[in-house]
Amino acid sequence: MGRFHRHADGTTHSHDDDHTGHGHDGDRSGIGDHSGYRTGTERVEVLERIFDENDRTAAANRADFAGHGVCAVNLMSSPGAGKTALLQETLRRLSGPLRIGIIEGDIETSLDADRLAGFGAHIALINTGSGFGGECHLDAPMVRSALPRLPLDHLDLVLIENVGNLVCPAEFDVGEHARAMVYAITEGEEKPLKYPVMFRSCDLVVVNKMDLLPHLGFDLDAFLGNLRAVNPAAAVIEASARTGDGVDAWCQWLRGQIDSSARAAAPASP
Amino acid sequence: MHELSVCGSIAGIVERRAAGREVRVIHVRVGQLRQIVPDTLVYCWDLLCTDTSLAGSRLEVESVPARIRCRACDRTADLGDLPVFACANCNGLDVEVVAGEEFLITALDLAEGATT
Fold first, then answer.
1. Chosen from B6, B14, B27 to mutate, greatest number of chain A CBs within 10 A
2. How far apart, in whole angstroms, are the C-alpha atoms of residue A236 and residue A199?
3. Residues B115, A193: C-beta atoms closer than 8 Å
């Protein structure tokens, strides 16, 4: 890859001659017309993926998790869907039997991290507001910056609570083994069709706040139909973090992820 | 919503590839399934480049429609506006995305000759 032509010596080359092989097919921009420029323009083929750097760091994170025998789950949702409430109930049940770390992403404040304190889990907070522009998602370098603050050697599971947002977090691989989403039935049935990339990227959708079903005009079958249209393979768990219904099934799913990530990391055995 | 941070990534690649030469146009290919709004990307690019060596450069965004291929009947079709990942021919759900997830810099237009 790369046909970069250095001109450090200040020489110029013949524009017409040197453009063979530069991939002018599909050039509809009319940029070949140089009349508006004082000097000529040379097109250089690049073909470089814009997320390459993030994805390389994500691979390094994934390798570090695997090397320490840790399963990492990226938990995403819109704001207020109940990620932190579900995590509280998760820690209540699993912290102790399992050694858990939390990477907590939030644009500002430590409010969510404070809610998760006291359950015996190790918590690393990332305030994305201090980053460039105030990020609406976690990316792989941010998660990497949190790893030294977690005792990976002594953990079985790291839960990454992403920033509440149905768009951006779906775009960024952070090095997780599985992606789960918390979806509240107060959000309506049509969200999978409006945010297909997010719903498509998940291995599991926890349908939360099911205790509110009698009070809402929510059509669960219509929601599940929309979810199937964008992601036929996603597992679904109906739950209420408030009443605790379905939380055990979610914990079981987490244990399954730990088992499968351990199997994937183990050397081949008979 | 993340176009500004994406522009930061683009700038890193462009500066490395241009190696000091004046950059006029950055050609970017964006698939329909990438949640990048071209107008926002262009706006953020101008914002990011102000008072840098990339000031005055321009992003040229090429959009690529999403296409899915059915693994059961081998039919390939545009996804269309409604994101239903099922085969319109056999109703099969085992489909693969064959286009629409691209997000890359395809080319740079650099000033010939003098370095900046």
1. B27
2. 11
3. no
Under a CB-based contact definition with an 8 Å cutoff, are residues A126 and A105 in contact? yes
Cβ of B114 within 8 Å of Cβ of A10? The answer is yes
**Whole-angstrom distance between the N-terminal and C-terminal Cα of chain B?**
32
* Position A182 in a domain: yes
Whether residue B27 contacts residue B10, with contact meaning beta carbons closer than 8 Å, is answered with no
The CA distance from B113 to the nearest CA of chain A, in Å, is 5
Q: What is the pLDDT of residue A268?
A: 61
The domain spanning residue A122 has which CATH number? Answer: 3.40.50.300
- Which residues in chain A are closer than 8 Å to B103, comparing Cβ atoms? 49-51
- CB neighbourhood size of A20 (10 A): 7
pLDDT digits (tens, 9 = 90+) for A51-89: 999 999 999 999 999 999 999 999 999 999 999 999 999
Its domain, for residue A101, covers 57-265
Residues B42 and B48: their CA atoms lie apart, in Å, by 10
For testing contact with chain B, the best of A12, A33, A35, A50 (most B CBs within 10 A): A50
Residue type, A149: R
In a domain, A8, yes or no: no
CB contact under 8 A, B115 and A200: no
pTM over 0.90: no
Residue A149 belongs to a domain? yes
Site of tokens 């789950």: A73
Selected residues 122-151 of chain A with any CB under 8 Å from a CB in chain B: 132-133, 135-137, 139
Query: Which residue type sits at A127?
Result: N
| Contact (Cβ atoms closer than 8 angstroms) between residue A31 and residue A113 | no
ipTM of the complex: 0.87
Domain total for chain A?
1
The answer to whether B83 contacts A170, with C-beta atoms less than 8 Å apart, is: no
| Among the partner residues B10, B83, B112, nearest to A40 by beta-carbon distance | B112
Residues A217 and A250: beta-carbon distance below 8 Å: no
Q: Please indicate whether, in this complex, the C-beta atoms of B17 and A44 are within 8 angstroms of each other.
A: yes
Residue A30 structure tokens? 């009319």
Flag whether A117 is in a domain. yes
The continuous run of DSSP H or E covering A198 comes out as helix A196-200
